[in-house]
């Protein structure tokens, strides 16, 4: 739903998804899950624009997404990514 309403280009989508992976790998690693924002909140607040400390964003930056976190993210944005 959020993605349909905001009509992102494929480049914008890729950028947001890349930043999401970085947040999962760096900002949210090892913290209590109650402090991770709900997916729709993260999107509405444009949190992908936040700086991430001590991480160089390169093509080599890859991370596996926790399947449960991905499921909740998809569920909260309407399931159509």
Please tell me about this protein's structure.
The structure is a single chain. With 81 residues, this protein is mostly helical. It has helices at 2-6, 10-27, 39-44, 67-76. The longest helix is centred in the N-terminal third of the chain and has 18 residues, at 10-27. The protein is globular. Mean pLDDT is 80; it is low at 55-61.
Write a brief caption for the model.
By secondary structure, the chain is an all-alpha fold. Helices cover 48% and strands 0% of the residues. The chain is built from four helices and no strands.
Count of separate structural domains: 1
Low-confidence stretches: 55-61
Order of helices and strands: HHHH
Structural class: mainly alpha
- The strand count comes to 0
The profile of the biggest β sheet is: none
Number of helices: 4
Secondary-structure blueprint of this entry?
Elements: H1 2-6, H2 10-27, H3 39-44, H4 67-76
Short key terms for the protein model shown above:
48% helix; mainly alpha; 81 residues
């Amino acid at each position: 739903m959020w993605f349909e309403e905001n009509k992102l280009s494929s480049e914008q989508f890729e950028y947001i998804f890349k930043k999401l992976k970085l947040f999962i790998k760096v900002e949210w690693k090892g913290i209590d899950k109650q402090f991770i924002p709900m997916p729709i909140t993260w999107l509405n607040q444009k949190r992908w624009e936040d700086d991430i400390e001590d991480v160089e964003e390169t093509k080599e930056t890859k991370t596996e997404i926790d399947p449960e976190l991905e499921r909740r993210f998809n569920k909260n944005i309407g399931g159509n990514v």
